[in-house]
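RECORD CONTENTS
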Amino acid sequence: MKKLPLFILALVIFASGTFAQSQDTTKKVEKTLDYTIMGKSWTVTKYADGTKLIEWEEDNQLDNDPEKYIRKSTNKFYYNFLESEIGLSMYPNDKGAPQVKPWGSWYVSLHSVGTWKASKNFHLRSTLGVNWYNFKFEDRGTIAVRNPDGLDFVNFEDLPNGPEGVPTKSKISASYATLTLVPTFRTNDGNFRIGAGGYAGFRLGGRGKYVYDDLDGDKQKVFTKSNMYVENFRYGLRGEIGVGDVTFFFNYDLNDLFQPGLGPELQAISFGLRVD
């Protein structure tokens, strides 16, 4: 038996929803977990359609019977504290910004998930967390320079008071706190899912980075530890297709990546997968 703290017990009770008198034996059981909380036994049964059944023991105080009896609760809301996604970040190559190299332009997301199961075939999936955009330039000698009047892309050799050596990597990145809402339709067994929705985010940070080998052959890293004129807010459209335990996602920003007049006018995209 696993030991859980008291506050998790409170969360379980809060999420329980309405009470049922008997377990639905027609559903396919996906997972069963047993817990011991404050000396009482709890069982959480997760079904293939995404619903859960929570059973626990209580003392029967109504007739002073010391024996236990079982109460059962089913709920339509499922919560996952931590989930991750990984993919690539891109933008159009003909909009005035350096061409992006796919390998190394990572998109990473860490978030909590809440799913409301309105029916067997319709779920509303929502996430709240942090994601990171990384844009690695194809030309490792191109450097993003933040000037008072905007963002410039210059050659490594042309950097004012720049170092001497051989450039090896150049990128810009930004992080956002993001909320997503994705209505999702799924088959009865959940092996195929498709959803479309949107997201909105607030920028947490941003920076530029380039790496070079100096004249002694040592690797040097230089950071611009300030926002690279990336927009403070972002919003866009999101699509998801799930097959089995793997879900593919696609994000398209509706607003520009950079602030007006301070960088190229272009929208970012990101795509990748997660394992459910």
In short: The radius of gyration is 25 Å. The chain has a mean pLDDT of 83.
